[in-house]
Amino acid sequence: MELGYTVSGLIIGFIVGVTGVGGGSLMTPLLILLFGISPATAVGTDLLYASLTKMGGVWVHGRRGTVDWPLVKLLAMGSLPAALITVMVLNAIRVEDQLYSDLITNMLGVALILTALSLLFLKRLSRLGHSHFGFLVKWRDRNIVTLTVVTGVVLGVLVTITSVGAGALGMVILLVLYPRVPAVTLVGSDIAHAVPLTLIAGMGHAYMGTVDYGLLGSLLIGSLPGIYLGSHVGGKIPDHILRPILSAILIVIGIKLMM
């Protein structure tokens, strides 16, 4: 079984390296549907897995100067308290195991479908951001600051319950709100925000006992070389081919989980 986890980590890591998307979106449902891991343990383990694998990305973007730290701070102002409150709520309803599992699987299905749609309509959403927010100068408009903090709150709740949202969904929202910021800076900022969010949410799950450390180690052994290999292949596969395929996979998995 440990070999199966490692191979799965290798495959998911490779997909993440190629597409930049797919960590929580594919890993959590894979653990639930293929290996029969309980939804709570799958989410908790994947959260710590995500925080550890993304730390290297933050280091790279930080050295390149492609992290907008004030933007990360605003997102964290909303997401980190929201994650802590969500953990407390989950811990309170844990007495009803079936309710807990149903909540996670249904919200995970919704999150996957939203992620798929955001990937499919990424360019349209980016144009929408230019038309509605392109005239604003960041940090000088209270509406943008408020929307950024609210975005953090939404991501904090969603990521803590499903482990999905910090990557693709967060990136799409940032593209809409900050169309004048270079995409590479938004990517770096999104990753930098995801690390403390997934770490705190993962530690909350660890407190609840919903982290499998053996599983976590097996996934990391496979995923780290997978990400390295995928990152060297990513630029060779056209984006207009990758995005619809990944979106279709996420929609099918999302519907499966909700059913």
Beginning-to-end CA distance, first to last residue: 27 Å
What's the total helix number? 11
Beta strand count? 0
Helical/strand content category: mainly alpha
- Number of folding domains? 1
Q: List the helices and strands in order.
A: HHHHHHHHHHH
What's the story with the biggest beta sheet? Answer: none
Helical content band: over 70%
Apparent shape = globular
Low-pLDDT residue intervals, each spanning 5 or more residues: none
Oligomer: single chain
The pLDDT mean sits at 84
Structure description:
The chain has eleven helices and no strands. By secondary structure, the protein is mainly α. The chain has one domain (2-258). The chain is globular, with a radius of gyration of 17 Å. The mean pLDDT is 84.
Key terms for this structure?
259 residues, mainly alpha, 11 helices, 82% helix, globular
Please summarize what this structure is.
By secondary structure, the chain is an all-alpha fold. The chain contains 11 helices and no strands.
SSE topology:
Layout: H1 2-19, H2 23-33, H3 39-64, H4 69-92, H5 97-120, H6 122-133, H7 142-162, H8 168-177, H9 183-208, H10 213-233, H11 239-258
Helix pairs in contact: 1-2, 1-10, 2-3, 2-11, 3-7, 3-9, 3-10, 4-7, 4-9, 5-11, 6-8, 7-8, 8-9
